[in-house]
């Protein structure tokens, strides 16, 4: 099955990067969910929670305070000004 | 004669303690530079993602954005000069300031009015001493800038760029900073930040993999509105990080040279002291001998 290559980056560091089966993020006009095979999109994000479901392991949640998200060819890049991880990222 | 010896001994002692200080500063700079370079590396994924996104928007739509259009309603231009907070870094601050002065002269010759924004105490004291007007300055963390400071600087400058001309708006923004090439080479550089030229960093699209047709959420204008200020912020942040790394490298090199100079001085003074001691002994001997001669005859 196709997978997503996900990069979650903050202004001063890379927070998380890896393979995932699903990503959901708070776009400016409502939650956006990305599955493999999604059409290319550039979306503005508002403050809210980003959820990443990795291929293996527990889900990852982080609170961001705005940023944007780009998807192309199953590469997902979430760019946030500041991220605070609520679950998952500290274990890897 | 004994006085001469004592003076030399004193100088040797004081130079020795100076040498210890220089050595300590060199080691501190050397240990901090690793962290500074790590920060530069850590900020690149963000910058790369932003550059990609900006070039994607730029290739897909030519939307005029206030940040990319030239302003003609004012001849005021802003110059941001990044220097260090402390000295002891050789010519680091001096060469950044010299570059800035060159730029200012050139801009003034073009009939523009320069508004100065400064980071680092050295630049502030340079321009304050010469009685030049400073629009705003940021001091206190030149060797380890945080993103918050970069954001503050960027927001101030963006607000200036977007302000109407009668409220102090500026038509251009130039940044003078020191580019960190490697440990031995740091070059003062001038870049024109605003209005943005997005051509830079646009990856040449290879034929095999055309840039995808993006959907913009909610609209291209809104995406550009969100992207461009972030792009400016990240560029300014990277300039500050580079300047910080350059400062530490310059300081390390300057302190290394100072340590070596102190060693040279100590060697010279030791020789002079030995010579003085020898001269004293020789004189004493000749005094004794001539005294004995005078008694014997």
Walk me through what this model shows.
The complex is a heterodimer of chains A (92) and B (297). Chain A is mostly beta strands and 92 residues long. Chain A has a single domain (4-85), classed as ATP Synthase, domain 1 (Sandwich), CATH 2.60.15. Helix content of chain A is 0%, strand content 68%. Chain A has no helices and seven strands. In chain A, strands 1-2-4-5-6 form a five-stranded mixed beta barrel. Chain A is globular. The termini of chain A are far apart. The relative contact order of chain B is 0.19. Chain B contains six helices and six strands. The model of chain B is unreliable at 200-208 (pLDDT under 50). Helices cover 60% and strands 13% of the residues of chain B. In chain B, helix 1 (2-42) runs antiparallel to helix 6 (220-296), helix 2 (44-60) packs antiparallel against helix 6 (220-296) and helix 5 packs across helix 6 (220-296). Chain B has a domain at 61-199 and 217-251: Pyruvate Kinase, Chain: A, domain 1 (3-Layer(aba) Sandwich). In chain B, strand 2, helix 4 (121-129) and strand 3 form a beta-alpha-beta unit. By secondary structure, chain B is α/β, with parallel strands linked by helices. The two termini of chain B are 29 Å apart. The A-B interface holds A 7, 9-14, 27-29, 32, 39-44, 66-68, 70, 72-73, 77, 79, 81-82 and B 39, 42-43, 45-46, 49-50, 52-53, 56-57, 146-147, 151, 212-218, 222-223, 225-227, 230, 233-234, 237. Strand 4 of chain A pairs parallel with strand 6 of chain B.
Topology:
The complex is a heterodimer of chains A (92) and B (297).
Chain A: E1 4-9, E2 14-27, E3 30-34, E4 41-54, E5 60-72, E6 75-80, E7 83-87
Parallel strand pairs in A: 1-6
Antiparallel strand pairs in A: 1-2, 2-3, 2-4, 4-5, 5-6, 5-7
Chain B: H1 2-42, H2 44-60, E1 76-82, H3 92-109, E2 113-119, H4 121-129, E3 136-138, H5 147-162, E4 172-180, E5 186-194, E6 215-217, H6 220-296
Helix pairs in contact in B: 1-6, 2-6, 5-6
């Amino acid at each position: 099955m196709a997978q997503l290559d996900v990069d979650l980056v903050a202004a001063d560091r890379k927070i998380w990067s890896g393979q995932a089966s699903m990503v959901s993020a708070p776009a400016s006009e409502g939650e956006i969910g990305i599955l493999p095979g999604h059409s290319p999109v550039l979306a503005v994000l508002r403050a809210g929670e980003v959820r990443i479901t990795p291929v293996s392991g527990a889900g990852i949640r982080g609170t961001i305070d705005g940023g944007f998200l780009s998807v192309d060819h199953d590469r997902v890049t979430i760019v946030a000004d500041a991220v605070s991880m609520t679950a998952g990222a500290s274990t890897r | 004669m004994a006085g001469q010896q004592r003076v030399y001994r004193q100088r040797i002692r004081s130079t020795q303690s100076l040498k210890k200080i220089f050595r300590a500063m060199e080691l501190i700079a050397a240990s901090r530079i690793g962290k500074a370079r790590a920060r530069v590396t850590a900020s690149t994924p963000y910058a790369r993602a932003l550059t990609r996104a900006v070039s994607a928007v730029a290739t897909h739509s030519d939307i005029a954005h206030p940040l990319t259009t030239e302003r003609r309603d004012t001849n005021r231009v802003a110059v941001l000069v990044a220097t260090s907070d402390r000295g002891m870094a050789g010519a680091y601050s001096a060469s950044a300031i010299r570059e800035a002065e060159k730029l200012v002269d050139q801009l003034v010759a073009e009939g523009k009015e320069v508004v100065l924004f400064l980071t680092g105490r050295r630049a502030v004291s340079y321009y304050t001493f010469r009685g030049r007007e400073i629009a705003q300055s940021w001091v206190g963390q030149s060797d380890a800038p945080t993103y918050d400071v970069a954001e503050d600087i960027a927001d101030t400058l963006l607000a200036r760029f977007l302000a109407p001309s009668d409220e102090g708006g500026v038509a251009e923004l130039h940044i003078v900073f020191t580019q960190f090439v490697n440990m031995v080479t740091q070059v003062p550089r001038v870049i024109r930040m605003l209005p943005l030229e997005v051509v830079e960093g646009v990856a040449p699209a290879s034929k095999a993999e055309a840039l995808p047709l993006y959907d913009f959420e909610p609209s291209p204008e809104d995406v550009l509105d969100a992207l461009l200020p972030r792009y400016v912020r990240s560029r300014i942040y990277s300039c500050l990080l580079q300047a910080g790394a350059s400062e530490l490298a310059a300081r390390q090199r300057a302190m290394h040279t100072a340590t070596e100079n102190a060693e040279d001085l100590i060697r010279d003074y030791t020789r002079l002291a030995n010579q003085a001691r020898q001269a004293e002994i020789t004189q004493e001997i000749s005094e004794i001998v001539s005294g004995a001669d005078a008694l014997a005859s």
